[in-house]
Amino acid sequence: MFQKREEIDNNNINMTAVARLRELLAQEDKIVVCPGVYDGFTARIALSAGFDCLYMTGAGTTMSKLGMADLGIATLNDMRENAGMISSLDRRIPVIADADTGFGGPLMVGRTIEQYMQAGVAALHLEDQVVNKRCGHLSNKEIVDEETYITRIRAAVNARAQTHGDIVIIARTDALQSLGYEAAVSRLKKAIAIGADVAFLEGFTSVEEGRRVCAELAPTPVLLNMVAGGVTPNFTVAEAKEAGFRIIIYAAFALGPVFGAVSAAAKELKETGDLKAADLDGKRPRDIFTVCGLNEAIAFDVAAGGKLYAKGV
């Protein structure tokens, strides 16, 4: 945002975010690393670090927008609005967004696809939990039957075709916990056969299972959800790439650090009446604003003839 057209052309902005993501996925020797963000500030921080792709976490969106746990409470409007805002911050950078179950039957899944495409989202994942779902790393998830799940994926693929645009469709299954490995992978294979672009086996519990699913679904890219403290064993980026994964998302990338730092600051302020823990690590407020596009916004205003920021801020 607020970039000069010459700069945009030089940075290949004419390639859409979804085209960029497809280009990245076509590079078989590459793994796409996606930090999980949930609002404009965390997205700006990740963008400033230079990541090729971002992931909008549904859990983080639910907690930040609604102040509630990830129990299927966020609506299509909640998720699409947040995903669209994050996608708008830098149209060059693909955003993969959680779309839960598609928020209903085939018509609602189709509407979800259209809304996410209109919002500029590059990819989304759809899962096979019941509509009142829960975070994939919680226990006792309820799964819909295979036909219902495949109907969701087919509705997504059909809506994408009818909308005359593009979005990468990621088929996610949470069936491993209750139905076992073979049934879960069977669902992914059927989803791929009808047009899903990427497979996502949620909640696997061993390195061997991770390697196996990548091998069985090749050449289809497989996504790894790396949740610290979750049920899936830890993979470094290098280990995930070596195992065969093509995308790795860190859903709690921002949630953990924010929870820890803000909890510490709240405790300090409550107990001591002072706030040294929140001194911005020596940074000034302007430094934070700069991460969020301060200089670009001022330059844009000045170039248009605006006077408010002509002398700086």
UniProtKB/TrEMBL annotation:
It catalyses: (2S,3R)-3-hydroxybutane-1,2,3-tricarboxylate = pyruvate + succinate. Pfam families: PEP_mutase. Coiled coil: none annotated. One of its GO terms (molecular function) is methylisocitrate lyase activity. InterPro entries: ICL/PEPM (IPR039556), Isocitrate_lyase_ph_CS (IPR018523), Pyrv/PenolPyrv_kinase-like_dom (IPR015813), Pyrv_kinase-like_dom_sf (IPR040442). SUPFAM superfamilies: Phosphoenolpyruvate/pyruvate domain (SSF51621). PANTHER family: PHOSPHOENOLPYRUVATE CARBOXYLASE, PHOSPHOENOLPYRUVATE CARBOXYLASE FAMILY PROTEIN. Belongs to the isocitrate lyase/PEP mutase superfamily. This is Carboxyvinyl-carboxyphosphonate phosphorylmutase. It comes from Lachnellula hyalina. The gene is bcpA_1.
